[in-house]
Amino acid sequence: MTTSPIASRLPPKLRRAFEGLGVGAAQFGNMGKVTPEQDCLAAVDTAWELGLRFYDTAPHYGLGLSEQRLGKALKGRSPDDYVISTKVGRLLEPNPAPQGSDEANGFHVADDLTRRRDYTADGVRQSLEASLARLDMASVDILWIHDPEEPTDRFEEALTGAVPELERLREQGRIAAWGVGSKDAGMLKRFVDQARPDLIMLAGRYTLLEQEQTGLMTACLERQVGVVAVGAFNSGLLARDEPPADAWYEYGQAPEAVLERARELAAVARAHGVSLPAAALAFPWRHPAVVNVMAGMRSPEQVKRNHALASCDIPEAFWNELQARGLLKENT
């Protein structure tokens, strides 16, 4: 891990929490499969023991279940000792036509609630208050504008509605920072170019497997916008030393060309005695705009494994060979 020069601009509490691996709590909302609540609570206990202090959730994750579980897991711990972030842009409302399950959206929970996209100032206020109630907390540290590109472009609504409200919340001291979270690098760059976010959360687009070419990372460095890199394993494709034939990418079966690229990365890693998942977690830290790397964790075992992987030293010769083979283009 390295320390980004941008980190010095952040409040001390954020800076300290960002030094360790971030804990993503999407799985606390039964993403992909049912996760027992006790596993979620134990995962946070383990993360805490290992010194991890940055936790992220969202209303979207399990229709509020992730927020509820994360709030319960952090109960009794001083808010001064951790950083928590959640997201705005999807309001949860009673579902007028429930089908029984939210699995179509990737979460194994009852669909008694439904999501309504809202990136207005009023939507931010409603979303924050509802999130605080689910978390059973008085405040959060960071609010992210969540996926303003899907399924339709809501950039203008967010720019004129959510952004000024988030600025006000920060000025009032109700949040320490705000940002935008998305897997669409082009959308994130629009916010970096036209607004003044403190942070962006970039999902799966600056990884060992692929480095986006929109100029986003360079823009963040120039404008001193910190990058929280998530999705380092590209939906699991880089989570094992040898990517299997049935590996996932972008939440579905990996295309053959993508799988071949991952296997070439794995071959180089083996030649240098490097764990492919460890390299995947280490890669984003190499960019000076990156202030934190976050991984999803649903059990104590995953927390321990990810923490151990993030602690591995990766030889410079490994990175040099990737660049020589054209498998790596940094600082884009």
Summarize the structure.
The protein is an alpha/beta fold.
Layout of helices and strands, plus pairs?
Layout: H1 12-18, E1 22-24, H2 37-49, E2 54-56, H3 65-74, E3 83-88, E4 90-94, E5 113-117, H4 121-135, E6 142-146, H5 155-171, E7 177-182, H6 185-194, E8 199-203, H7 216-223, E9 226-230, E10 248-249, E11 252-253, H8 256-271, H9 276-282, E12 290-296, H10 300-310, H11 316-324
Parallel strand pairs: 1-2, 1-12, 2-3, 3-6, 6-7, 7-8, 8-9, 9-12
Antiparallel strand pairs: 4-5, 10-11
Helix pairs in contact: 2-3, 2-10, 4-5, 6-7, 9-10
Strand order of the largest sheet: 1-2-3-6-7-8-9-12
Helix content: 25-40%
Q: Kindly report how far apart the N and C termini lie.
A: 19 Å
Shape verdict: globular
Beta-strand content estimate: 15-25%
Query: What would the average pLDDT be, to the nearest integer?
Result: 96
Structural class: alpha/beta
- Would you identify the regions where 5 or more consecutive residues have pLDDT less than 50? none
Model description:
Helices cover 37% and strands 16% of the residues. It has 332 residues and is an alpha/beta fold. The strands form 3 sheets. An 8-stranded parallel β-barrel has the order 1-2-3-6-7-8-9-12, surrounded by 5 helices. Strands 4-5 form a two-stranded antiparallel sheet. Strands 10-11 form a two-stranded antiparallel sheet. Strand 7, helix 6 (185-194) and strand 8 (199-203) form a beta-alpha-beta unit. It is globular.
